[in-house]
Amino acid sequence: MDPIFPFSLSLFLPKLCFYIFFSNSCSKFCLQIFVPIFLIDFFSFMHFLSIIYAHNFLYVIMFS
């Protein structure tokens, strides 16, 4: 895998914990701020994962 992958995962997980914490203990105003940020980060992270898996899949096809 690319060396950037563990780094991006380590950035993503604290945001997930942060989101879970605030969704339990924060006001509606806070949620209106943090939920869109979380969703944007989540989809960009999933997009990043799909790029890595597609890259590895092509590598397997080319060299098998």
Q: Can you put this structure into words, describing what you see?
A:
The protein has one domain (4-63). Helices cover 91% and strands 0% of the residues. It contains two helices and no strands. The longest helix has 36 residues, at 28-63. The two termini are 18 Å apart. The model has no long low-confidence stretch (mean pLDDT 64). Keywords: Membrane, Transmembrane, Transmembrane helix.
Q: What series of H and E elements makes up the topology? A: HH
Q: What does the largest sheet look like?
A: none
Task: Please state the CA-atom Rg, rounded to the nearest Å.
Answer: 16 Å
Task: Calculate the mean pLDDT score and round it.
Answer: 64
Given as residue ranges, the uncertain stretches (5+ residues, pLDDT < 50) are none
Domain count: the total is: 1
Beta-strand fraction estimate: under 5%
What share of residues is helical?
over 70%
Kindly, what is the distance between the CA atoms of the first and last residues, rounded to a whole number of angstroms? 18 Å
Shape: elongated
Q: Strand tally, please?
A: 0
Number of helical elements? 2
**Which structural class is indicated by helix and strand composition?**
mainly alpha
Question: What structural keywords apply?
Answer:
64 residues; transmembrane; membrane; 2 helices; transmembrane helix; mainly alpha
In short:
The chain is mainly α. The protein contains two helices and no strands. It is elongated and about 50 Å long.
Chain-wise SSE layout:
Blueprint: H1 4-25, H2 28-63
